[in-house]
Amino acid sequence: MSALEPIQQQALVDRLMSACGGQYSPETRRKFFITGPQWAAAYEGNSLFQDKTRPTIGFERIIEEYSKIGIGYWCTHDTDVIPTAGLGHAQQDEIVGRIGEALKRNDMKCSMVTTETFHNPVWAASSAPEASQIRDYAAWRVSNTVKIGHELGAQFAVYWPGSLGYWIQGAIDETQTLQWYADTLNAACEADIDLAKKFGRPTLKHCMEAKPFEPVAEILLPTSDAMMAFIFSGKLKYPAMVGLNPEYLHERMWGTAVRAALARMLFANKLWHFDINDGYSLKHDVDIAVGLINPFDWLSVLVLLRSHGFNGPFNLDYKPPRSTSQHGVFAVSFPTAVDRFIALWEMAGEVLTDPIIKEATEALKTAGPRVADPLDAAGMFAANRELWSLHELIGHRLFQILIGQNKGRSFSV
Ligand code: 3MF
Ligand code: MG
Ligand code: MG
Q: CA end-to-end span of the chain, whole Å?
């Protein structure tokens, strides 16, 4: 093989992408409530120790590219699209107007809006700091985002309180900070109730998103479980308006089984929105695309979600790797992420109708014969002894479905 010029490299990528096959059509992709974040496609490849590898691109291009791929929904932070200094001024209305037109032109919808309360220096002492003027500003920021949400037709508002925490222990009273953060969410809900009336729309679903580490040393609401305790603490004025936006990797980062964490949210009726991606346990937030690291685990997650009727939104909150070019972001990264998700979703459907899993699950629930003495633990164990091998058999069947052995794919020696 001789060295390839960049233009030939792009053609090679495109040719191998189509050689991969198995792509879903944009129409099929659009049937799913899959949402594309402004910030994911705009990510330039930079990090704490790494410089940018891609150019700056704006919402017009991103909305158009998502639409072509068949990602039917778009979402954004307020400051992904409006400079902080322009918020609340004419510039905001002008930009929101242009976003509305870009969405319409490309047959796209805005699904969700979120407030950046972690990046700007104003949040250096957290998004609920001692300075009451900054807390008032935070309350205004989230309410302003809710307003933008109504203007763009969004159904969801998301809150990632990444800066709600500290570096130096002992300097703040955590319970006070949590109360101040509750006040911020109360302000967002209150504003939403008024705005919804004004716009003649339902109120938004307000979803909290937890991440255990980053960007500060100690996070006050590090997990979705902590957030549920917060929602049900009695400190929120509108707890029924507030639910969760878990992120697959954020849960995995602290070591839980993601499926079990999601089950706890389903149990509390608070799983409302889901950031889909992948990565490694006990590492920083690497935001790798869905299914590239833990496809087996992902299959299991989607079996749970499908069996509980959770149909999205599924938000592609990942970072196209910095090795991927700008061309690759839209030619490889997003379409393949969407297609792996759909393939895993369809596989989860196969799991739910698989006759072997069905029969095994039913047999386990029917259980062995009841013993006469309800206190006879040894007898109960013996009565079910052979059935419980089915747990492992079900696990094996899930693996077979993942690799297609249930459909006759074989690996000969
Ligand atoms: C950080 C995140 C955030 C949130 C976003 C939504 C930049 O790890 O996951 O993405 O998803 O702020 O509110
Ligand atoms: Mg993440
Ligand atoms: Mg996220």
A: 32
Residue ID of nearest Cα to ligand 1 atom 3: 160
CA–centroid distance, 156 to ligand 1, in Å, is 14
Mean pLDDT of 316-330: 98
Three-state SS string over 114-173 comes to ECCCCCCHHHCCCCCCCCHHHHHHHHHHHHHHHHHHHHHCCCEEEECCCCCEECCCCCCC
**Is residue 272 over pLDDT 90?**
yes
Query: Which tokens sit at 61?
Result: 């291009």
Most informative mutation of 160, 206, 245 for ligand 1 (most atoms within 8 A of CB) = 160
Question: In this predicted structure, what is the pLDDT of residue 238?
Answer: 98
The β-bridge partners of 114 are 77, 158
Per residue in 132-154, pLDDT (tens digit) is 999 999 999 999 999 999 999 99
What is the Cα–Cα distance from 66 to 98, expressed in whole angstroms?
17
- Give backbone dihedrals phi and psi of 45, rounded to 5 degrees, phi first: 90, 5
| Ligand 2 centroid to residue 85 C-alpha, Å | 26
Cβ atoms of 268 and 228 closer than 8 Å: yes
Please report the atom of ligand 1 found closest to the CA of residue 158.
13
Lowest mean pLDDT among 3-7, 206-210, 235-239: 3-7
Q: Which of 135, 154, 138, 137 is nearest to 146 (CA)?
A: 154
Ligand 1 residue neighbourhood (C-beta within 6 Å) = 39, 114, 158, 160, 209, 211, 247, 275, 285, 317
pLDDT single digits (tens) 341-360: 999 999 999 999 999 999 99
Domains and CATH numbers, the chain: 24-353 (3.20.20.150), 355-407 (no CATH)
